[in-house]
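cron nightly-structures :: item 1 of 1
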Amino acid sequence: MTEGLNIDLHTHSCCSDGALPPAALVERAAAAGVQVLALTDHDTTAGLEAATRRGTELGVLLVPGVEISSAWRAQSIHVLGLWIDPASATLRKALDAQSARREQRMRNICQHLTRAGLPGTELLRAVQARAGIATRAHLAAAMVERGLARSTDDVFRKYLGRGRAAQIAAHWPGIADVVGWIVAAGGVATLAHPARYKLSAGSRRQLLADFAASGGAALEVVSGGHAAHHIEACARWALYAGLAGSVGSDFHDPQLSWNPLGRLAKLPDGVTSVWRDRLV
């Protein structure tokens, strides 16, 4: 029986762009009453072993996961892989390639920052020195720490946002490829935070159709920061596309109040849970 379980299937640790180490993330989730937790760092599974070990100690069931960046019609789309086998050779090779893409993009961004009169080489060293996947969020934080901007939002507004001097487009693999990697690793491909993508109604329907046709199985119906009308819309989309529903806070940092652990709404009636056949 899973009714009444406190479930969160979308969180991040410091192995990607989260603030907490994997074990500390699990501890915070346990304190918030979460009983089933997925660690879904961006393009890496590095934190799963530590998170699973701490989950066993605290009685939290750890769902092995990952969040993989993909592309659909030039739109960046994030796909969660839940219940993956981290040892899958196909997945490991794919994530290594994702890491290389991220590293090259970061180098290109920092080169553009240098051309803009900023210490790009120093900033590159700073983000490369930290453990885990280096993201633009880490670069923005490094710039704020060095007094080059007032806030991370300021960094994106001035340098990294669309049309700015250091805006470098990401070249992610197609959504069908990403879903294929997840399925090959025994996982359940879940479309993350679908309400955040700026798509027309027709494009959204096509995305859902393409995702399902590629082997995608679920849609994140309840996501951190979603209002009631977002959840209702996502439920309709899941039912339209014949997809199961998932719930996830997209937790990154205790300082961010909009997506706390342990306070997610329930799946709407009529939506089949992605965990129905996974948790007994």
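cron nightly-structures :: done
The domain at 7-88+176-248 is CATH 3.20.20.140 (TIM Barrel).
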